[in-house]
Amino acid sequence: MSLLKLIGVLLDYPRDALWEHGEELLAAAQDDALPPARRMALVQYVRDLLATEPLEAQERWLALFDRGRSMSLLLFEHIHGESRDRGQAMVDLIEAYRRNGYELSARELPDYLPLLLEYLGQRPPEEARDWLQHVSHIIGLLAARAGERGSSHAVLLETLVEYASGVVDIDALRRRARQEPRDDTPEVMDQLWEEEAVRFGAEAPAQDCDPSATRAPRPAAAPSHANPQVQP
What we know:
One of its GO terms (biological process) is chaperone-mediated protein complex assembly. This protein has helices at 3-11, 22-29, 36-50, 54-65, 75-79, 85-99, 113-120, 125-148, 154-165, 170-179, 186-196, and strands spanning 102-103, 229-230.
């Protein structure tokens, strides 16, 4: 298992099958290409994960990556938001996958970071680093935000940025993240639901039923990502 695929697997929603491959995960974490300190941190992350009950690990994942948009693992959400450019960017990314024999299922979003890492894990290292350098500013902020929230996932994201660029000023990124308003608090989440709820009845303003004025809230559920198959 390549380092990028390992990080992708560990960043993905932790399904029960993950614990069945513990030895393989530990072996992949002991990558000689990593600096000793980073390698030890990655190995410790895997050991801690394997010692955690699956339900608890799943709850932690949802609390970090599925509440608010600042920690979304959908990369284009950070770049394009809800603009129309996001749709075209997804089409372009799917075409890039297909040119190299990598087909997605109909339910998969191409900009989902764990999926991108699985793809890049099969590409030449120079190409993979080039791809990651283009999004390293996003991954670096994700790493900083995860660290500020006390999440152990920070080590995965920090490792990814270091793989792409060799160095990362995580302290500077954390200072920036510290100044950002949190978007995963109960108060903010309640406000988001209130703003996005469709209201009916005599008190409902007319624009509530205008599709251009409403946006369905994201469900708090596990992503539908499944391991894509590489076509020969």
